[in-house]
Amino acid sequence: MSFPLSIPSPDWSYFDLGPFRIHAYALCILAGIIVATVMTSRRLTKRGAEPGIVLDIILWAVPLGIVGARFYHVFTHPGDYFYAGADLWRVLFIWEGGNAIFGALIGGAVGAFIGCRLTGVRFWSFADALAPGMLVAQAMGRLGNWFNHELFGQPTTLPWGLEIESTNPAFPIGLPAGTLFTPTFLYEIIWNLLGVAVILYLERKFTLRWGKAFGVYLIWYGLGRTYFESIRLDPSEIFFGIRTNVWAALLAILIGLLIIIIQQREHTGVEISPYVPGREWSAPDADVESDDTESEVDGGGNDASGSTGSAENAATSTSVSN
Predict the structure, then answer these.
(1) How far is CA 37 from the centre of its chain?
(2) How far lies 3's CA from each of 7, 160, 161, 232, 237, in Å?
(3) Whose CA, among 34, 211, 242, 246, lies 20 to 30 Å from 222?
(4) Which residues constitute the domain of residue 35?
(5) pLDDT at site 191
(6) Residue 226 falls within a domain, yes or no?
(7) Angstrom distance (rounded) from CA 122 to CA 42
(8) Within its chain, how far is the Cα of 320 from the centroid?
């Protein structure tokens, strides 16, 4: 049964440009990376970092994030890639879809850690600056799933259900052609964009530094993903009756809570600088934007490896706008 407001799946997922085949999924991922980089650079620069320093960090974070995303997907969907007569090269075909955000977080964190160590930027400063951009990038990446006709949810009678062709390998056996499915890609896009607004609001309301903004990101995304994952129809490894990615989402929530709790105890004020002590960057005509005045500044601080200074000094400082 079709509805006037139902969402059609795109009738194309790639186009050829000379000898090259350009996939819509890859374009969505690339666009998300670009937007997240611009947002992160702007936020980190406002906090006193050298303009463009983010590029030196993402040169490590993005490649390792892609590797982690693909590895995690293949690891949690082994039946899609390892079977009699399988083309093992498909393990590398990331343009076909199958790049797990939880794997990207793990690989990207390793890459960001390396990049931060090399540039002198505090790891948690970078993570906080990245938090809203990550959600925007993930929202844009979900458009790629729409183009690929994948990762849709359970059958629905809602008028905005997603149209999926009955020839799709993931189309449930026994359902009639024309069945509409829950548009999980759209729900997650909306959830992620709402998360951007939540993080920006909380940053203005409270002091979200030392990784606490990133902690909010993990909690927000984990909460949404716990639900979205539970209604998806694509096959997944099951442990104790729960899909692998639901476990990963619950772990993300736990890690986010731990980051906020631990960092709140260790650091009671804003960061003096996004750099590790001794690695600060000074511009001749630096004009770092500021807004709210904070009465307490953390004089110690974590370096890129997460170590804490020997003392934390209270002083008057100005927090940096977001």
Answers:
(1) 12
(2) 9, 8, 8, 21, 34
(3) 34
(4) 20-318
(5) 96
(6) yes
(7) 16
(8) 23
Q: Is residue 135 part of a domain?
A: yes
Judge if pTM exceeds 0.85.
no
> Is the separation of the CB atoms in 183 and 160 below 8 Å?
yes
- Residue 1's pLDDT is 46
CA distances for 268 relative to 179, 203, 322, angstroms: 54, 15, 19
Please, what's the b/e burial string for 65-103 (b: 16 or more CB within 10 A of its CB; e: otherwise)?
bbbbbbbbbbebbeeebeeeeeeeeebeebbebbbbbbb
Annotated binding site: 142
Q: Strand 242-243 and strand 180-181: pairing?
A: unpaired
Q: Write the Ramachandran bin of 231: left for phi over 0, alpha for psi from -120 to 50, otherwise beta.
A: alpha
For the segment 24-71, what is each residue's pLDDT rounded down to a tens digit? 988 998 999 999 999 999 999 998 888 889 999 989 888 898 888 887
CA angle 232-106-86, nearest 5°?
Answer: 60
Number of Cβ within 10 Å of residue 173's Cβ equals 4
Residues 6+ positions from 4 with CB-CB distance below 8 Å: 159
Place of tokens 């009678």: 157
> Rounded to an integer, what distance in angstroms lies between the CA atom of residue 314 and that of residue 61?
34
The number of domains in the chain is 1
Q: Quote the CA–CA distance of 91 and 241 in Å, as a whole number.
A: 26
**Residue 305, exposed/middle/buried by CB under 10 A (0-12, 13-18, 19+)?**
exposed
Q: Which amino acid is at 151?
A: L
DSSP class of residue 8?
A: P
Question: Nearest Cα to 49, choosing from 276, 216, 295?
Answer: 276
Q: Residue 272 domain-assigned? A: yes
Residue 1 domain-assigned (yes or no): no
